[in-house]
Amino acid sequence: xxxxxxxxxxxxxxxxxxxxxxxxxxxxxxxxxxxxxxxxxxxxxxxxxxxxxxxxxxxxxxxxxxxxxxxxxxxxxxxxxxxxxxxxxxxxxxxxxxxxxxxxxxxxxxxxxxxxxxxxxxxxxxxxxxxxxxxxxxxxxxxxxxxxxxxxxxxxxxxxxxxxxxxxxxxxxxxxxxxxxxxxxxxxxxxxxxxxxxxxxxxxxxxxxxxxxxxxxxxxxxxxxxxxxxxxxxxxxxxxxxxxxxxxxxxxxxxxxxxxxxxxxxxxxxxxxxxxxxxxxxxxxxxxxxxxxxxxxxxxxxxxxxxxxxxxxxxxxxxxxxxxxxxxxxxxxxxxxxxxxxxxxxxxxx
Length: 350
What we know:
One of its GO terms (molecular function) is methylglyoxal synthase activity. It holds the Pfam family DAGK_cat. Helices cover 33% and strands 28% of the residues. It is of the alpha+beta class. It has two domains: 31-143, Probable inorganic polyphosphate/atp-NAD kinase, domain 1 (Rossmann fold, 3-Layer(aba) Sandwich), CATH 3.40.50.10330; 157-315, Tumour Suppressor Smad4, CATH 2.60.200.40.
């Protein structure tokens, strides 16, 4: 058997093993779970949405259902569930609800299910988890999991990102009533309003091996972020399981410059290329200590938590999440390694 035949055979065997592992995961699927449901998340009818979740999951999983309230948040409910020894925790709400509940299961083997019903739903988007209730429930029922990084900032768990400066001010302006009425447009409207107050501040960023001092209008530290989290897209393509955090500095001098920088970030995120503007910088590190003058507001996963200074540290592979099952594709061509190989691309005939 030559090398090419051996490679194809190994690929087919690996593919068949992946199918067997998937089938075994279905057989050994979780049988019970705690469902934490935020009734004020998103713009839908919470009673209808909860009933939809139950109708899909309860035929397969024994659900222990808890609703968040102003007095009892997702973190408290998740901690109680962990103490009871649950098989899995499923959370339905926005990014803030997911972040709060995730803290209880960090560095445990308890799988974390996500049914997004918030305004942005950025964490689900970053992990390619479906944004409809039905598809998200099916993802959980499939039983496939993977580990992803998390982080801590201000002693708060961070599954998505921390925004300092412009983003924090924008999030604070987008109140609950506006988000319920307009959804994601609420953040855009708030951002347009905040452009009128755009100011740069002095920032010092300390990593394990360097100290950086500069001016900025926004500093974003991302653990995971979809392309729609524009201010996090300096490196374009946030890797959520590499044990590193991605920091983006945006430092336009004017309102026009801010609009141009934001548009450039949006373009590079869409094309998967790093930024090239002089007023945008980025770097990766395991942890950051960030100090600003004057102090700036800090938003973590959509919730204002305080002001700078902050320390943010990555916890590699800290969270086990249910993710969609994707079949591996068998390659249709493999030529590299052949002796005296030449490949000539033929010109198309006119």
